[in-house]
Specification:
4-stranded antiparallel β-sheet, elongated, 5-stranded antiparallel β-sheet, 25 helices, single chain, alpha+beta
């Protein structure tokens, strides 16, 4: 029986998703409505921290100090500005004491102290016109935020001879959480209409353009419900909301683009809607499934890290990827079954091409075919040139400096940022950024005094206060000479931990948390990288049956991320373009951000890689012609991948308009990564490398070939006998 006369293959999955399309869409509508209800208020339950390792020494010491010496851990700072007067002026001092006494009477506030009570030099600005009132707000993050909202308005502003501004860690976290929620709403308002316009430009049909957007909205709302449920059992970072929006729109649009495009191709070739859906799910649907698995694997690697900031992105990312794929493979075929040929309705592009003849369908993608032909003709040049450019763009990352997230994540006008900046610029040492030493075990005053002398003798120490003794525990406050998290402060953490004592000591503080976080990431990073590499290699092998293609995919994907990492350091660490982009550079990169960006960007790169490789594999199985398969694959997917990358980049840039620096870095960095991957790696480097590897690209040893024949999944029909014989020949000659 010839290929033309073959009966259409309608698989069981096609029958399942198209049997009752109206019922499927109605059930989806009801479930989406329930997800809206279940996910309502999720943002209010998310945390703004999560950068610390819960098993680290610094975390243990922080919790012990909060329990035993709650007054030693202030998280609320009132900056009292006396204007032209001195903070020691009687009127100023009297008003400051009244404010401190009033603060001590507030419910949920403990440990109030001030310069006017203690006389501590660290609480007084060097110019004598500002001083601090410190306190601790108790409770979890939600309770602390509510307390701050309740009390801050009555202290903020003018009080007789002084002006008060509110800051401290609790104010920074609360302001960051509020800012992210506001920015996310604005980003959605930007991304949705722009995305719809781009989809109309890609599809022409307004009906076809609305389908990917609908899939994205379903994925986002479903993920919000999942995150809301997770907050009942574990901490989830508010930053994960940004990833939910970005990936929900981006991946759902990618998957829907691929499926709708293939469905329209089959209709244009004369297939009936049911047959077209069957072919689409057997080909593009299978690709979407593999793509979702590879992206989920990259995101799942973040579960290996102890910080809940990273784990939150894994929760959100895996949920939104699986929901986007499920919606694309279940709801979208049902919608296409109902629409049929009406998927091409409302072609808005006709308004802009009057008088011009439509391009024949056979000419579609000819520019990409010419690009592939040119690249493969000059394969060594393109392979070397693109690799050199990507490596050059990544060189700034060699100078990366890791730090911790602080108030400088917020806009320079944010109140808590203003307070902390005044403290950095005008106060001696680093108030609020000192190191705390917890001593556990019974000891004499002489032993405490001797230990204090040893600490004070360390070169980076400005002053040591304490000990404050309670039972068998004691507490020392160590003030470094420089910045809270600079290199000397991090060295001081190691020196303190190495200082001998006749009792157990634990060191915490901002620099200690940073040191422990870096150690935790360094310990788990090789395992996470190995997990991503091994599982990705296995999945791509299942898709292609080749040994070399999975290795190429992993290496080229990693190479595609160099520009992103170089730009992150050049822009956000070194401060280039900070005025244009509207952020304050802290001079470092938050430790967990490169891990997060790698996992997300690597997964998205694999997403595009699977789209291209699956179409190349389908053509190679059909014809056995390697060069023609590469050319055809780029011709058929080059425009689609570029369109998907541009749309995802628009969503990420919308996220990148955030006023919080980490979110801005995440959005703009990943936007750059996906554009570089689609326009440089997929368009130039992949076809060049595949041309250089030639027929060996498809080689696999006999045991692996048999394994793939039994368990592997590939696009299209079974390979023709001539193709199978060609593979056997390649395998025999290795």
């Amino acid at each position: 029986m010839t290929e033309v006369n073959k009966p259409p293959r309608i698989g069981g999955w096609t029958r399942f998703v198209t049997a009752r399309p109206r019922l499927s869409l109605l059930v989806a509508l009801v479930l989406t409505a329930l997800a809206v209800l279940a996910g309502s208020g999720v943002a209010d339950r998310l945390g703004a921290g999560g950068w610390e390792d819960p098993a680290a020494e610094s975390t243990y010491a922080t919790k012990a100090l909060e329990r035993e010496f709650p007054d030693s851990q202030p998280n609320l700072l009132l900056l009292v500005d006396s204007g032209r007067s001195s903070v020691d002026d009687p009127a100023v001092a009297g008003e400051a004491r009244r404010l401190a006494a009033r603060l001590a009477d507030e419910q949920g506030v403990i440990g109030v102290s001030s310069y006017w009570q203690s006389g501590a030099p660290a609480l007084r600005a060097t110019d004598g016109h500002e001083a601090l009132i410190a306190a601790r707000i108790t409770g979890d993050e939600k309770t602390m935020g509510e307390t701050l909202d309740r009390i801050a308005p009555s202290y903020r502003g003018g009080h007789g001879p002084v002006e008060v501004t509110v800051g401290g860690p609790v104010a920074v976290r609360h302001e960051m959480q509020t800012t992210i929620q506001e920015d996310l709403t604005r980003a959605e308002m930007i991304a949705l209409p722009v995305t719809l316009v781009l989809l109309v430009m890609v599809f022409g049909s307004a009906v076809a353009a609305l389908l990917p957007l609908g899939i994205g909205i379903v994925a986002i709302l479903g993920t919000n419900a999942v995150l809301r449920g997770l907050t009942e059992f574990t901490d989830v970072s508010v930053f994960a909301m940004n990833l939910t929006t970005a990936l929900g729109l981006g991946l759902a649009i990618d998957y829907a683009l691929f499926i709708v495009r293939r469905f329209r191709e089959e209709l244009a070739a004369g297939a009936e809607p049911l047959t077209a859906i069957g072919t689409t799910l057997r080909t593009a649907g299978r690709t979407v499934l593999f793509s979702a698995l590879t992206v989920a694997v990259s995101l799942a690697a973040m579960l290996l890290f102890p910080q809940y900031f990273l784990r939150s992105f894994a929760y959100a990312g895996i949920a939104v990827v699986l929901l986007a794929a499920a919606a694309a493979l279940i709801l979208l075929p049902a919608a296409l079954m109902l629409l049929g040929h009406r998927v091409n309705a409302l072609d808005l592009r006709r308004l802009f091409r009057r008088g011009r003849a439509p391009k024949p369908s056979g000419e579609e993608g000819t520019a990409w075919a010419r690009t592939a032909t040119l690249v493969m003709r000059r394969a060594p040049f393109f392979a070397l040139a693109t690799t050199a450019v990507l490596i050059l763009l990544g060189l700034p990352f060699l100078g990366v400096k890791f730090g911790t997230a602080d108030d400088r994540q917020l806009p320079s006008s944010a109140e808590s940022h203003v307070v902390q900046q005044h403290i950095r610029d005008g106060f001696p040492g680093s108030p609020g950024g000192g190191l705390d030493v917890l001593a556990e075990g019974r000891a004499t005053q002489a032993q405490y005094a001797a230990y204090k002398e040893r600490i004070a003798a360390l070169p980076e120490v400005m002053r040591v206060d304490g000990p404050l003794v309670k039972g068998d525990a004691a507490y020392f406050a160590v003030l470094p000479k420089g910045e809270a998290v600079d290199d000397p402060a991090q060295r001081l953490v190691g020196d303190l931990r190495a200082t001998g004592a006749p009792f157990d000591t634990k060191v915490t503080g901002t620099a200690a948390v940073l040191v422990d976080s870096k150690d935790a990431i360094a310990e788990q990073l090789p395992w996470a990288a190995a997990f991503i590499a091994v599982v990705t290699l296995f999945l791509v092998f299942l898709l292609t049956g080749s040994v070399l293609i999975p290795v190429q995919a992993v290496l080229l994907n990693a190479l595609s991320l160099t520009a992103m990492f170089g730009a992150v350091v050049w822009v956000f660490q070194d401060g280039h373009l900070s005025g244009l982009l509207g952020f304050t550079s802290p001079g470092s990169i938050e430790t967990t951000l490169p891990v997060l960006m790698f996992c997300v960007a690597f997964g998205l790169s694999m997403d595009y890689g699977v789209f291209l490789l699956s179409r190349i594999k389908e053509e190679h199985d059909r014809t056995g012609d390697h060069n023609e398969a590469v050319r055809h694959g780029l011709q058929r997917t080059g425009g689609l991948i570029t369109a998907a990358a541009v749309i995802l980049a628009v969503v990420m840039v919308a996220i990148g308009t955030s006023r919080v620096t980490n979110t801005k870095m995440l959005g703009l960095g990943i936007a750059l990564a996906v554009l570089m991957d689609a326009m440089i790696v997929r368009s130039l480097l992949v076809p060049a490398v595949m041309r250089l590897t030639g027929r060996a690209t498809w080689w696999a040893p006999a045991p692996l070939r048999r394994f793939h024949e039994r368990f592997g999944l590939s696009e299209g029909e079974e390979p023709a006998p001539a193709v199978t014989q060609e593979r056997d020949k390649v395998g025999a000659h290795g």
